[in-house]
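retry 2 of 3: previous attempt timed out while embedding magnesium ion. Reduced batch size to 1 and resubmitted. Inputs unchanged:
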Amino acid sequence: MLRLEKVSRVYRTRRGDVKALDKVSLNVNDGEFVVVRGPSGSGKTTLLLSIGGMLRPTEGQVIADGSDIYAMNERDRARFRAKNIGFVFQLFHLVPYLNIIENVSLPAGVVKNRSGPTDVGELLKRLNLSERECHKPLELSAGEKQRTAIARALLNQPRIILADEPTGNLDPENADRIFGYLAEFNRSGGMVIVVTHGMAADRFADRIIHLRKGCIEESLENE
Ligand SMILES: Nc1ncnc2c1ncn2[C@@H]1O[C@H](COP(=O)(O)OP(=O)(O)O)[C@@H](O)[C@H]1O
Ligand SMILES: [Mg+2]
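retry 2 succeeded.
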């Protein structure tokens, strides 16, 4: 379903060019759970942003369902993103002056009390956030913030969740819960690509990919 064809990404800086991805080719099937690892600066975030249609490769193609997503115009790519992809980041990226319901509903453009693609109330219940739904991010624990971000990613019923060190700021217990939700999404047929340093997600992984200096150094099928 997702194919990367020799994707390279160069960042041009004042101190010269940085090659963050170097001819990365990769196939990920629907329903696959992929863990991405690699040292800091190896290109993990660049890879996720490229896959998610947020960062145009300098060379190569990202092909989803047969379409080159960077050959689309901005509007079609934005639509592709909204329909197919949910993002979860290490730093949550919640809007501080909106409460949980509003944060979760924001990207979907869902108006409160109108049924969106998913019932927001149901989703928050499933993520154990019901009692916090009118609270703002400042009033939440790190685990609650990240569960809010997961809810936001799930709301549109995407086909792919891209998660960039989603548990980097969480204790092991909350990290396990987050991976549990990603695993649940995966069991229902969703594709998960998650950058993570720990081993907590390994038991859910179909494949573990190691990046090094912008290249796939190793790609291991998981038992
Ligand atoms: N916006 C940017 N401008 C210049 N260089 C960047 C930018 N983003 C990332 N890089 C560089 O690209 C390389 C890969 O970065 P990144 O994808 O963030 O790696 P990782 O997520 O594995 O830490 C690093 O050398 C980083 O410094
Ligand atoms: Mg990163």
